[in-house]
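hiii, so i know i said id send this last week but things got crazy w the move. better late than never?? heres the sequnce for the chain we talked about at the cafe, plus the structure i predicted for it. fair warning i was half asleep when i ran it
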Amino acid sequence: MKLRRFLKDKLYSIIISIFGLIIMFLILLAFKVDKYILVSLLFIFIICSLINLCIDYFRKKKFYTYLLDNIECLDKAYLVLETLEKPEFYDGEILYQALYEINKSFLENINKREKMSRDFKEYVEMWIHEVKLPLSALSLMINNHKNKLNKEIKKQIKRLEDYVEQVLYYVRSENAAKDFYINKVNLGTIIKNIGLKNMTELLESKIEFITSNVNVFVYSDSKWLEFIIGQIVNNAIKYKKENANSYIKISTTETKNDVTLFILDNGVGISSTDIRQVFNKSFTGENGRNKTTSTGMGLFIAKNMCEKLGAKIAIESVLNEFTKVSITFSKNEFYEVIK
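okay and structure toks below
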């Protein structure tokens, strides 16, 4: 901290002090105060002012010099606050508090990013583990059976495709806004595509795929929305009841303010203890423990995507009876295209 720069910063205060001193001197002179007293008062005033400037300069110089030196020495400059003591002058306290808030915000952001990175690493490791299962199955089938493999190979390849798609959308969901294309989309078209994509699994599992009143338009991203609904349908297929007349019913209701899509199945359902956690990352619950193919990521990703698309997703279920997922799309005048 340079003295010249400090004095320049204090220039107005010094000028005002000198002006005040002159006024005081003239007043005392007008009252015919003894000249020795005038000189003494002038001397005391000047000495006190200089002492005040010196004290202010040296305590600020100590703090700011220490601050700048530590910033230069530290590999991680954002940790400089940990090396400082709270200053005793007011503008230093303001700076110290500002640095504290900035440092706090920065560390919170770092922790958030580190958590996201750890979560992603855990998911990728889990995903790789799951992908190995169908790959191993394919290798065994190819080695042990040379004929009539088309159906089984297709089934395992479909599992691989689902896992790859899931991890792809999970990665993209971190920067979803860059990949969004909000447009007027027909729910009926999306549901038809999902039905065709899962036709083999639906037929093999003997699940009736029923739709009603689905030709409704909403404003969303068709690609992301197809993935979200596809995850819910995949869960309904995965958790069907054995030896039952299974079905997946998809329908919509429309009001003045919103459109709600319902996906209902009569599968194994979800227990009351698990229902509150089904949207949590990697949560598989009781049903997941009975299914080795469960990752617990489908609904977690679906919920995150719905939030980014401005839709609301909810789920209700009764164990061994049904599961119903609803996705609500708000009607918003700002989405309307002005021609």
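btw The first strand starts at residue 183 and ends at 186. thought thatd interest u
miss u guys!!
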